[in-house]
Amino acid sequence: MDNTLNRNSMTFWGLVFYAIMVIAPAGPFAFTGATAMEYAGETAPLTFLIGGIALFLAVIAVYIYSEKISNAGGYYKYVEVATHSKYLSKSVGFYYLFVVLSSIIGSSVLLGWFLYIGLEVMLGYTLPFVFVVIVSFITPVIYLIVGILSLNYSQKIAIIMGLFDLVFFLGLSIAIIVKSPYNGVQYFNIFNSTDGLHGFFLGMVTGGFVAFSGYGSIVVLAEETKTPGRTIKKAIVTSLLIMIAYDTFVIYANVGGLGPNLPAGLAYFAPGLYVTDSYYGIYVTLAAFSIFLVSALISTVIFGNSAARELYSLSRDGILPKVFTRIHKKYKSPYMAVIAVFIVALAGISLGLIPLVYYYGENNGLFDLLVINSIIGSVFTLSYHIIVNETLPVFMHHLKQLNPVTHILAPSVASIIIGIAIYYSLIDLVWPLSSAYIFLPGLVILAVVITYYMRHNNVKMDTIDEENEKRAKRRVEQ
User: Fold this and answer.
1) What is this structure's pTM?
2) Less crowded by CB within 10 Å, the N or C end of the chain?
3) Helical H segments across 321-409, by residue range
């Protein structure tokens, strides 16, 4: 049975807009913007700017690794080739899975919650909660369909929707700035953060880091990309440059448009839509609201492809059952891995919705579930970035190309900033957000236990020589 993914299906601009859609251009007008403003207040634009710069330092390691290693395992294969440590590398693979799964669960719930509270606040219509639940389950169902199709379908959808989103929300942001009397530089002063450094970094983790981490969604698509050694790294830099500038500008437009009305904007389920309503009325706001819903759906559906590739790679290495390596005969997609992601997403949505909504009500319960998933996803994202950063010197030493500044100092600075962000974002969390203190170590232990349980199997571990051979073979085939 052929269990090889469909090679050469992803192009440079396909990867760029795949990453852009996972980062989600509509996000700053809704959830990522709301969480950043909720915890960091008027300094929300600065959380996106500093968060983006910190991740850009972390990109150095990913940029170098992606040139040398083109594997569906992505980050964990980088660590594996550098250290040849089974537990460390395979754990990074699970961390990435946890990130994507938490994103799918959180974003699926976001769709239902956003529709529910949006209709209530904007039109005074209370959607029966059963429909909120149904809408929350729509995203995984659509993902199941799109995920089984060829990756080229996702690429086309990402390009079309990504361009549309960027143009629409950028234009709307410019229009808000033009009308606002509250523009200024005070929104880039960290000392204006609502809750000090804790609030600033919590806003960064649940806002900017959640958004920008989407750039890494493309590293697991390397085996399906044309000339991945050159294309992946360029697409990462391009998508990040676009989205750091775009998101910072859009959040500034929202905060600058609100000015002293920020508390009122936060009370209105999405500050970006509140300020739109204030300046341009309900019809423009409803248009932005509708576009966000479609964009959030597509973003989550596309991101699910990355989880399936990671699951496929871990299974191919012998860490998970081989059934997940099965490839669809027509579409060349890892369809059994797609089905597994779909099932886990359904279970996660169900197990999260029921207790939180029961104890805290529809609005607070759904919002808390979103924030919990954001914290879990962000901490794991930041953790595997630190691991990738700190294994880069080992990798470059093996290649006899070690540069102290590029390969040690710059990535370590990024790791320190990331570590500070993790610390400040996790201190003093109150229940139910403090449940992250249970989930985070529990998932770390789960990754180690699964890897340990499979220790007697023939677990595959790649080396740099094997990766070089694969790259040479792909060049010949192309």
Assistant:
1) 0.87
2) N
3) 335-360, 362-398
